[in-house]
From TrEMBL:
NCBIfam families: pilus_cpaB. InterPro entries: Pilus_assmbl_Flp-typ_CpaB, RcpC_dom, SAF. The chain crosses the membrane at residues 7-28. It comes from the Bacteria. This is Pilus assembly protein CpaB. It comes from Nitrosomonas communis. It holds the Pfam family SAF.
Length: 268
């Protein structure tokens, strides 16, 4: 009797196990059969400004209900397009990440509408010791020497300027400092004129800024006297008036009045 009861419990356990397997199998089949579509993604990491070719792209299944806006289903539609941002392996290709059709590859493909690219010469110090990388924002500082280097001035002339490239490198994922001799900046036409004038009359420096800091810091610039805490003494402040009495041997002595470098005579 006890054996029959034990056998019955084993049979019931087996039936419950089979039922659980059937339910789990149906659930898995439902998940697999979710509607999916093929979309184009990057087959490898792709640097900004690259002209796309089929070997750089692939297609994968993507849930139909969450396909990103502007995605592509056919690799052929992306042939010779240029990406405006870095793409990581497996990242969907979106129209917003691409330059307009017909855009040439390289730097010209990543310049924003209404902007211009201008290159300025730097050294390892002027270039923020190599930490000004593509994608960073910088301020432009100019140092101008006046009056035979007696009264120089330093002032920030442009703010929140995007670094497009360092030397000939457009890559924006590097964090290692690079010593370069030229930096390409994205500016408006007005900013390009100011920058060109600034580099012709003084020495330029790049001031690296926080990427999320959108504040502007208007300054009056600083001169040597401001830096050292000196007071500026003007020529007018140095002018003194002196009255010198001279005896001419006549009943009416003359008076010589000295103001700075000017002298006048008066009869007393």
């Amino acid at each position: 009797m006890r054996n029959a009861r034990g056998i019955g419990m084993i049979i019931v356990s087996l039936l419950l196990g089979v039922a659980a397997m059937i339910v789990a199998g149906r659930w898995i089949n439902q998940q697999v059969n979710i509607d999916a579509s093929r979309i184009v993604v990057a087959a490898q990491d792709i640097n900004v400004g690259t002209r796309l070719t089929p070997d750089l792209l692939t297609t994968i299944d993507w849930p139909s209900g969450s396909i990103p806006a502007g995605s592509f289903h056919d690799i052929k539609l992306l042939d010779s397009r240029v990406n405006k941002v870095n793409l990581h392996r497996g990242e969907p290709l979106l129209d917003a990440k691409l330059a307009p059709e017909g855009t040439a590859g390289g730097l010209s493909g990543v310049i924003a509408d209404g902007k211009r690219a201008i290159t300025v010469r730097v050294n390892d110090v002027v270039g923020v010791a190599g930490f000004a990388l593509p994608g960073n924002l910088v301020d432009i500082l100019v140092n101008i020497k006046e009056d035979n280097n007696k009264n120089p001035i330093s002032k920030i002339v442009l703010e929140q300027i995007l670094v497009l490239a360092v030397a000939q490198d457009l890559g924006r994922d590097e964090t290692k400092p690079k010593v370069v001799n030229a930096v390409t900046l994205e500016v408006t036409p007005d900013e390009a004129e100011k920058l060109d004038l600034a580099r012709s009359v003084g020495t330029l420096s790049l001031v690296l800024r926080n990427q999320i800091d959108n504040s502007y810091g208007a300054t009056n610039g600083v001169r040597t006297n401001d830096l050292l805490g000196r007071k500026i003494v003007t020529a007018e402040a140095k002018t003194e008036t002196k009255i010198v009495y001279k005896s001419t041997g006549t009943p009416k002595p003359s008076v010589e009045i000295i103001r700075g470098l000017q002298k006048t005579n008066a009869q007393h």
